[in-house]
Amino acid sequence: MKFLVLWNIELSLVSAETARAVGRMPEYGTRLEEQGKLLVRYHLVGAHGGAWIYDVDSNEELERLLARAPVYNVAHYTVHALADMEARPTS
Fold first, then answer.
1. Span 2-82: which CATH code?
2. CA atoms of 19 and 9, how far apart (whole Å)
3. Can you give the residue ranges of every domain in the chain?
């Protein structure tokens, strides 16, 4: 199952702890990529967050991975389930 997860830092919660959490996100993302759970990750230009595409076995697994993210307690998440669009041959 693939999901697009958009996350944005809640600016009212910005603190030294938030900055440290954001600083740990690249390492967290690298670990997930190595495990095959994260396909790609992008920075949202002009925003305080990212767009990551996860490939997980279940909704529950996605929830666990999001809950383990360093920014979990200071970010807002928007999650979109993705479906493959296969090209169909024309008759």
1. 3.30.70.1060
2. 10
3. 2-82
Q: What is the pTM of this model?
A: 0.84
Specify the residue for token string 């440290």.
Answer: 20
| Beta carbons of 3 and 81 less than 8 angstroms apart | yes
Burial of 11 (0-12, 13-18, 19+ CB in 10 A): exposed
Q: pLDDT confidence of 91, banded at 50, 70, 90?
A: low
Residue where the block lists tokens 């979990």: 72
54: tokens are: 């996860």
Q: Which residue has the tokens 């967290």?
A: 28
Q: Give the Cα separation of 79 and 12 in Å (integer).
A: 22
